Structure formats: structure tokens, C-alpha cells
Amino acid sequence: MTSPVTERPAAGAGAAARATDLWKVYGSGEAQVIALRGVNVELERGRFTAIMGPSGSGKSTLMHCMAGLDSATRGQLAIGDTALNGLGDAGLTRLRREKVGFIFQQFNLLPTLTAEENILLPLAIAGRKPDPGWFRTVVDTVGLGDRLGHRPNQLSGGQQQRVACARALVARPEVIFADEPTGNLDSRSGAEILGFLRRSVTEHGQTIVMVTHDANAASYAGRVIFLADGQIVDELTEPTADAVLDRIKRLDVVSTGAPE
Amino acid sequence: MIKASLRGLLQRKLRLSLAVFAIVLSVAFLAGSMVLSDTLSARFTALFTTVNQNVAVVVQPKDPQAVEPARLTEAQLRTLSEVDGVRVVSPDVSVQGATPFRATDGEPVSADAALGFGVDGNDDPLGLVELREGRWPTAENEVAITAHTAELAKVKRGEQLKVYLPVLNEPRSFTVVGVAGYSGGRDSLAGEVVVMFQQAFAQRTFYGETGRFGGASFAAEPGVSDIELKQRIEQRLPAGFKALTAEESSEDRAALSGGVIIDVFKYILVGFAVVAGIVGIFLIFNTFNIIVAQRTRELALLRALGAGWGQVAGSVLLEALVVGVVGATLGLAAGVGVAAAAEQYLMGEVPLPPVDLVVAPLTVLLSYLLGVVVTLVAAFVPAVRASSVPPVAAMRDVVRPDKSLKALSIVGAVFALLGIGLVALGAFADLGGTAFLILLFGALLLFVGTLLLSPLLARPIVRGLGALIGRGSAGDLGVRNAARNPRRTAVTAAAIIIGVTVIGMTATVVQSFKTSLEDIMGENIGVEVMIQAAVTAAPDGRQGFNPKALDQVRAIPGVKEAAAWHFDALGVSVAGQPQAFGVFATDVGQAARMFPFDATGGEIRTLAAQELVLDGNTAETLKLKAGDRTPVVIGGVTRDYTVVGVYQATPIIQGILVGEPAIADFPGPLAFQGFVSLNDGVDAAPVVEKIETIMKDYPGVQVGDRQSYVDQATASYDFLLIAVQILLLVALVIALLGILNTLVLSIVERTRELGLVRAVGLSRGGLVWMITVESVLITVFGVFLGLALGVGLGAAFTKALMTLEFASVIAIPWLELAQYLLAAVVAGVLAAVIPARMAARLNVLDAISYE
Ligand SMILES: Nc1ncnc2c1ncn2[C@@H]1O[C@H](COP(=O)(O)OP(=O)(O)OP(=O)(O)O)[C@@H](O)[C@H]1O
Ligand SMILES: [Mg+2]
């Protein structure tokens, strides 16, 4: 642990996470796939950003790179004032502990831990004490009060995702990355989860980035970035579901050359 | 379907190679110990086949151990040699224990066998022994020796050689007139020492008169088979003799002489094989069980696509069959290889004839039984479980709740309770010899019960232990992983439980026995120096030292008393019952001054002819009390003895004691043990040295102080302990690999979880620690249960020994227990190395996007 993450200020402080001229290339030769081609993006603090785009457009790749889970082929990456380029495994681990939260589409929880223990896991790993007041607030926000002692296999899919949300929120990370967090849920449970995420942004100033396919889900965000073929092709602020759908239709025309 | 399952086989390389590895390992240990044991036996048989190479039939006394073994007269020998079909006769005049003394320092030559022969001055008619230089002995004071003997005794032809003469019980000097070897240029057959005397001298000295033979070997004329000749000879055979074909005789003698060493070794190897087999069953079962369980979803998918129950189970079994056959074959090959290497290593220095490795049909059979059948059973159980799950339920991605442990635990509890009851009965009730049978059976029940209960015990014990070592969140996750699947943890630990129970039990009994002995020896024994004859056969007064030598001991300044103890364990019976532990003859009045003798009936005093004393247990068994008269057979003579006294048995003195007049009936006049007491303040060390010089003429007689006596008395137990510790090592190695296997499979199974904890901030080091904690907990759990069970059973066995006065305290070997625990922790850490590295190398992104 020779490189404390706080010692590497990056330009343009104020953004929670940044990617500058980000390229990601998988494989080589015949099998080469360019997943990202020169993406520039800046995620402001205290904002709920959605990333949309057709399947295979590079959404997950962009998120993984920005979260430090995957390395960039070229370009600059930063979370807060910490540059990711060149951080080793130890540095990245520390970064994840202190500045990043994750919500995955599924398999978010450890089956051996109770809901409460799952929520507190990142803090336990980091050796930090939870703030009891904040813990209560988070648990109340996601509505898990009477379910804290249960194990994941005793919870429904929606409840499991709420636990995952609470886990991401409780450590108050610089930024939370969520890859299709409601992809496996019915629309009501999905709406609840999205509601919590939005409230944590508006009420507590949390920064959240979410990948989604669902225009309705994207409408909970304050800003939507549209990705196609590894490039940012469009952007919307304070969108409605209809506006998002409209954009998607137009993009499909652009990328496939024909109306759906 | 078959194609699908075979293709599936190739695609899961890692998991399957682990399964094959488990089978190879178990089978290799089993096959290796069996092949080694069989090959060593074959070596000994081969030795005597060499001895009998030109022999067709051997004639020997029916009971060579008898007090007065049958002898052939010259006339009888002539009759036998005139049997139709006999080509040549080689009469036998021989004795065991004709030990030469080294010319350089006067010490007796040490060898496994020291044989004396009488030879008639002509070359060996059977051509086995050949004169290399000089001539055969023709005078009483001449001997010929083998080249190996010459080398050991450091003498050359023409020089003097001192040889101890059994029966005469004294050493005498001879001139070496010849050096011989064996056909084929060998100096010895098996490292034995051989001295050849003039025949008449040997007959007179060893057999009491000339013209007597101990037996004879016969070569057949061409065209006469061994069996034919044997049948012809049998018709002329004098009473007390039997005829054997060369082959029968070789096997007989191999069993007799190789016997002791090879048998002990064989028992150890059989122990190896059994432990390897049992542990292997657990290892294979566990590995295959996990592998099939991990495929539950895949199997359910096949079911959803329309595969029938039988097809699914069949595909799993086919896979298991292929894996089992491959594993068993590789294991058998590996075992043979290991045995070959071990045999080379063990036998490299021993001049026994080399033989081919013996791979017996039983070895092959058991190898495949273990490899294939166990694998099939191990695969079948989870396959049935998997195929009986409704396809949809298995497809859903919820963690299925553990199957209830209730039924298993109830059966286990019943076994354990029954076992505890029987063990308690055996330990506390005064049942004599049957107590041990009851105890043994109870111990077995309790052991099986504990194994069945171990899944139930796994959670609480692992959590309890985990509270000690599972500090920090990574450690805590490790503890939870060890406790999450109690069945898996318990089965993985089973190998350790088995090994450690045996070792814990042995260690406790040995420690108790030693402590008892030390207590008694230290407390109230008036003996400072012990003299002890070597035990090479059942003692009967024909081995040991002349009690007159103690007169010289008594003359040493500082010596208070010296007592000679004679011992006869050959054909002794009291009150009509054979006494396997024989009788002691000594001055009992003197013994009472040196050892603690508490009379519980009658009196303990110097005994006259036809008087005896005995301990309470023996008196009870024989239904005798002070004042009774009873018939006693010693040395073939029956006399009526009076019971003068009954004493309280102690771990050092027990059994039947008669007075010195009875020695006249013993087969030989030699003392078996001597005890020396010293005046106050006299240092034992110089006295020991002086006595050693006096006893120098008696080969094999050891002199030592009190501690060395304790050491010697416990030496055989220490040997047992070491043998058991080696067993533990085998069990531990297999168990280690079993844990490794389980952990690797668990890691494959939990890839997603590993990715998750890494994603939320666990470092590589944390992950390694998590897996190490899991591994150590499984190991320590096994050691913990094993030690608890082993020490408990050991204490129970000791309690039963105490009832029989063989021990006086239960002592728990804390130091050894601590060492075993430490070994387990180290083993646990080692087992975690590979899996932990695997886990640490996982790419976070790959892990979380893992299907
Ligand atoms: N490990 C990899 N190796 C090679 N190519 C990859 C790898 N991961 C992603 N890709 C390719 O990169 C491109 C972008 O993938 P990505 O997973 O980011 O898409 P996505 O927008 O998240 O799609 P979806 O909406 O289906 O999840 C795709 O063409 C994909 O095939
Ligand atoms: Mg994606």
C-alpha cells in the first residue's frame, strides 16, 4: 500500500469520475473487438447518470473501466481526485474499499451472511465502524427493517437487490456503479429500487452511474448518456421516459439505417 | 446421451483431474503397501528356496521348541537314506545362538541369526556351502566360518576365535581352519553368522551325545518328484519327526525366521493399506460428491430438455466409471512404482536374494474395487439426488437449503451412546479379559457414531474454534465458509478424525503405562541395576546368563544384594491351565526386599521346593488361595505345589513365582534377569560398567540402571507409538490432499462470491487469509474431534488395564497432543496454499461475470 489514493490529484476536480479519450480493445488481429473508441465523459458529483445504448455498444465495458475493474487500452481514468492509470492491485483494492460501490444485476450477496452482515461487509472489510444513524437511515430508505436477520436465500429477488443497494449506500462511496440493477425485477420492485437510488441522490448527494436498457428506468436519472458502437452519440438531461424512447428510436435509425 | 456425457467429461478438466487425483492417491497408497508387503515376503521365501535349492525333502522334529526335541540316531538316518529314490543325504546338526566374539575388542558380534553347525569333514553333498580356503574342522578345537562371519568377527584363517556355546552356556576358543562361502560367490544368505564345528563335538555339546542328528535334507534321484519322495520317506519316519517337501520347508522357515521382523513390518503395511483404503473412500466420495453436486443445474437442464431419470443418472455413472478406471489404473501403476522404490531403499543393504515385484491378484482386485466401485457409489448418491429434483426447481437460482442432518444424527447418537455405554462397562466393571473385547467393540461403535455425528458437530465446533482464529472480516468469512456446509466439512475432516483418534488413543495408553512404570520404579524399588537377557525365543532357561556370575557381582564394592530371576514360558501349566506368561523362579524373600510385595493372603517369603506365590488376579483366574495344593507342570515334570501366599499385582511384578529349587525342572539353568541393589550413596554408573564386563561372555545380555530398565520396558510401546505416528502421517498426507481438493472445488463453485468480495474491497491477502482460515478450521476440527475421542478411549483402555494392575495412573500426553495440534495447523496452512493462490489470481471482472 505505497500509493495512497488521495495523493494523486487529477485535473478537473469536482467530477466524481472521469474518462478522457478512453479506448478499450479486446483481442487482436482477426478477433479484435473495439468496445470503446475515444470516449470522453465526466460524471458530476451528486448526480444520477444513466448509460443507455443497444446491446454490445460498450456500456458494461465503459462502466467496468471507470470503476477500475478493467484496465483501459488507452486514455485517462479518474475517480474523484485519484487517477486510475497505473494503480496496482493493492491500489485498486483500496480504491474500491474507499471510493466505489457496486450493484450488480444478480448474485450480489454472500449466502453465508445475513442481510445486515451483507450490508456492512464493505465497512467490515475496510475495518471501518458503521455510522449507526446513517445505517438506520439507509435501512429505512430501502425498507428492510424486519428483514435484516435473514439470509439471501430467504429473501425475494427484489429484497436481495434492496440489500445490495443498502450495501452500496452505507459506505457513502464517491460513486456507485450499477449495471442493470433492475434487469431481473418486475416493474414494481424495479420502480422501488430506482426510487431509492434517486432519493439517495437528491436527499443525500450520492453520485450514481447506472447502465440500463429500460427507458423508464433511465427517466429516474438526471442525465442520460447514449452509447452506440463504442462512442457517445447523444445526451439528455432531466429526461422523461418518452423523451428517452424517442431518442432511442432516432439512434436505431442512425445505427441500423432503418426504422424498427 | 453417452456422447454428451463423454464430451462433458473432457470439458471439466480441472474438476475431473482433481477426482482422478483423489483416486490415484488412494489407490496408490493401498496398492503400494500391498505390493511392498508381498514382495518382502517373497524375498524371505526366496532366501529359503536358495537354502533348499538342491533339496527334495526335509525331515525335522515335529516340535523343534520342545524341551527335549526328537533326535535321529545313525541307524534311523541310514534307514531313511536307503529309501528308494534318495540321491544324497545331508544330516543336520545345528544350534542357534553360537555367537562369535570379535577378535579386536572381545564384543559379541551382533547379527540377526548366529548359527552353529556340525560338519563331517566332507564337502556339502548338496553343494550349497563351498570351502573357499583351508579345510573343514576335524578336531574339537577347530572351526570353519563363512566369509561374512570372518568379516564381522575380524578374524582370518589360522587365528583364534572365541565362540559362545549355547547349551554349554559358556564361551570357548577355537582355531579357524577354514573359510567358506555359498554357491554363486555369496558371503552370506541374509546377513547371518555361521560357525561350523567338528560334527562329533557339535553333537556332544548341543545334543548331549554323539551319533545324534536334529534332522536331515534329502536330494532326489532324477525322475523322482519331491512329493513322491516325501511320501516314501514318511513310511519309514521315526516317531516325533515330520517330512516336508523343499517348498513346504521354505515357506515354513520363511514364516518362522523372517517371521518376527517381516510380520511386524507387514502389520504396519497392512495398517497403511487399511488407513489408505478407508481414508481413500472418504476422499473419493467427497470429491465426486462435490463435483456432481456442482452440476445439479446442468443435469436439471438435461432433464428439462427431456432426458429421463435413468439417462441422467446413467450419464453420471458412465462418467464415474471412466474416471474410476483411469484413476485406479494410474493409481495401481503409481503404487507399484512407489513399492519398487521403497523396496530398493529398504532392502538395498540387506543381502537377500532379489526378486521381482509381487503384484498379487488381490492387490489388483482391491485397487479397482477402491477406485471404481467407491467412485461409482460416490457419484451415484448425488446423481440420484440431482435427478430427483424437479427440473424447474433446480434451474431456479436459489441456494437450496441443506438437507436435514436429523436422521444421520439420530443414528449417530444411538451408535455413540451404545458405544459410550460399552466403553464404560469395559473400563469400570471388573470383567477380566473380556473387558477388552467389550471395550474394543464399544470403541468401534463410538467411533462410527462420532463420524456420523460429525456433520452436526461441525458447525458449533468450527464456530467456536473460529472465534479464536477468525479475527477480522476476511477471517470471519473463512469461518463461515467452513461452517456453511457441515457435511462437506465433516467428510473432508473424516480422514483426519480417523488417523488422530488412533494416535490419540495409543499415545494416551503408552503415556499412562510409562508414567505408571516410572511412578512405581521411582517410589519403592530397591533396585538400582538391572541385567536382562535378550529375548529371541520364548525364554526357558536356555538363554541368558549363568546365575553364578552374580557371585562376582556381589563382590563389587557398594553392591548390597544381587538376585537372579529365572523364567520359563515353555509348556508351563498350573492347576491344569497352560500359563502363557510362564513362571518365575527366584529367592522370593530377597525379591520382597527389592520390590513392593503386599501380601493379601498367606505370606511372602523365601520358597522351598514345591511352593509358590502368585498375584491376586492370577489366583482368582485359577481359583486358588493361600494354603491350596495344586499340580504344576514345569519342564515336562508334574509336581504338587502349595500356595504359600497371594500378593497384590503391580505393573512390574505379577504372575506365578516359585522358589530356586524349582530351577532344576526348568529346561535350562540360565537366569533371565538379574536385579542389583546398592548401598546408600553408591553411584550406579561405575557398578553398571563393572557388571557389563562380567556379563560380556553372555551374548545379548544387557546391563543398565533403573532408568534404562524403564526405557527398555517401554521401548516396545514407543515402537508402537512410532508406527502409529507414521500411520498418522499417511492419513494426514491423504487428508491434506483431500482438503486441498475440497477447497479447490469450493473455489470453483464460489468464483462469483470471490469476485464479489474482491469488488467490495477485499484485498488479495484478505482472500488468501480467508481460504487459509477455512482450511485450518477443517483440519483443526478433525484433530479436535479425533483427539477428544482418542484420549477418551485411551483413558478407558488404561482404566481397564488398571483394573488388571497393568497400570496405576491415567496420564494424558499433553506435549504430544499439542504437537499433533500444531501439525494439524501446519497441514491446514499447507493445504490452503494452492487453492489460495488460485483464488488470489482470479481476475475480479472475470469472477463477477462468471457463469
Ligand atoms: N472479454 C471480452 N473479450 C472480447 N470481447 C469482449 C469482451 N467483453 C466485451 N466484449 C465485446 O465488447 C463489446 C461491448 O461489450 P459490452 O459488454 O460493454 O456491451 P453492453 O453494451 O454492456 O451490452 P449488453 O447491453 O448486451 O450488456 C461487445 O461487442 C462485446 O462482444
Ligand atoms: Mg452489459
Automatic annotation (TrEMBL), chain A:
Coiled coil: none
GO cellular component, one term: plasma membrane
InterPro entries in the record: AAA+_ATPase (IPR003593), ABC_transporter-like_ATP-bd (IPR003439), ABC_transpr_LolD-like (IPR015854), MacB-like_ATP-bd (IPR017911), P-loop_NTPase (IPR027417)
Keywords: ATP-binding, Nucleotide-binding, Transport
PROSITE patterns hit by this protein: ABC_TRANSPORTER_2
ATP-binding among keywords: yes
Domain ABC transporter: 17-254
Pfam families noted in UniProt: ABC_tran (PF00005)
Listed PANTHER family: ABC TRANSPORTER RELATED, IMPORT ATP-BINDING PROTEIN
Name of the protein this chain belongs to: ABC transporter ATP-binding protein
Provenance organism: Catellatospora coxensis
TrEMBL record, chain B:
Pfam families associated with the record: FtsX (PF02687), MacB_PCD (PF12704)
TM spans (from-to): 267-292, 312-342, 362-384, 405-429, 435-458, 490-510, 719-745, 766-797, 817-836
Main localisation: membrane
NAD keyword on record: no
UniProt keyword annotations, A-Z: Cell membrane, Membrane, Transmembrane, Transmembrane helix
Superkingdom of origin: Bacteria
Start and end residues of each ABC3 transporter permease C-terminal domain: 272-391, 726-843
Identification of the protein by name: Membrane protein
Organism: Catellatospora coxensis
